[in-house]
């Protein structure tokens, strides 16, 4: 859950509701949440700089992590085995089953706007006017320079294709590999926020 008008300079709090098997969950202590795709874990970020991992009903706390990143954002990997807590310039990785730290820490060059996991053990981050692709294990990185600030980014499940767009500008489709290759450029939608996404099966992409 994200506030649409979220600004890094200030924190915004709101209730989180989660419904599973007829159980409604309300938490007014949290302002970020993420659900694993398998539905086994619900992770919430609390105002006291803790990440709380709950069961699928949202009623039982499994464990809690106190973190020291300079911001409070969360993303769960595609396979549901790990999650990342990230802030302005730091990414920490944790095992989702027991909360143990793993794969070390990544220090980014710029403030992180968004983060995406690939299925191939990499993370994609949007930082200022750049997109970085980093190997979680080796920390090797690839940089893609942008012409403007990115407002939307989507990654195919296999991590092969990256789609991003600018506000009031074109969207760009890249094939990722040893040498990243620009495949297509699509015209602007003419709206303030050009949202782009790749379909679940990886065969289609759309701009709205």
In brief, what are we looking at here?
The protein contains no helices and 20 strands. It is mainly beta and 208 residues long.
What does this structure look like?
The chain has 208 residues and is mainly β. Helix content is 0%, strand content 51%. The chain has strands spanning 16-20, 23-27, 30-35, 42-46, 50-54, 61-66, 73-76, 82-86, 90-95, 101-107, 112-117, 122-127, 130-135, 141-145, 150-155, 161-166, 171-175, 181-186, 196-198, 205-207. The protein has a four-stranded antiparallel beta sheet with strand order 3-4-5-6, with no helix packed on it. It has a four-stranded antiparallel beta sheet with strand order 7-8-9-10, with no helix packed on it. Strands 11-12-13-14 form a four-stranded antiparallel beta sheet, with no helix packed on it. A hairpin with a 5-residue loop joins strand 7 (73-76) and strand 8. The radius of gyration is 17 Å and the shape is globular. The two termini are 20 Å apart. 29% of the residues are buried.
Jot down its keywords.
208 residues; mainly beta; 4-stranded antiparallel beta sheet; 0% helix; disordered N terminus
């Amino acid at each position: 859950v994200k506030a649409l008008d979220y600004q890094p300079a200030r924190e915004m709090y709101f209730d989180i509701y989660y419904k599973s098997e007829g159980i409604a969950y309300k938490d007014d202590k949290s302002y970020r949440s993420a659900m694993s795709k398998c539905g086994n874990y619900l992770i919430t970020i609390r105002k006291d700089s803790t990440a709380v991992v709950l069961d699928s009903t949202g009623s039982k706390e499994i464990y809690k992590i106190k973190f020291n990143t300079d911001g409070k954002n969360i993303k769960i990997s595609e396979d549901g085995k790990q999650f990342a807590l990230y802030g302005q310039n730091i990414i920490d990785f944790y095992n989702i089953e027991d909360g143990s730290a793993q794969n070390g820490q990544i220090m980014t060059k710029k403030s992180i706007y968004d983060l995406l996991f690939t299925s191939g053990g990499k993370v994609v981050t949007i930082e200022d006017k750049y997109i970085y692709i980093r190997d979680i294990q080796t920390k090797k990185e690839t940089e893609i320079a942008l012409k403007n600030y990115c407002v939307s980014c989507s990654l195919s499940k296999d991590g092969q294709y990256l789609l991003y767009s600018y506000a009031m500008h074109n969207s760009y489709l890249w094939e990722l590999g040893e040498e990243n290759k620009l495949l297509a450029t699509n015209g602007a939608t003419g709206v303030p926020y050009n949202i782009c996404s790749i379909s679940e099966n990886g065969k289609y992409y759309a701009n709205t």
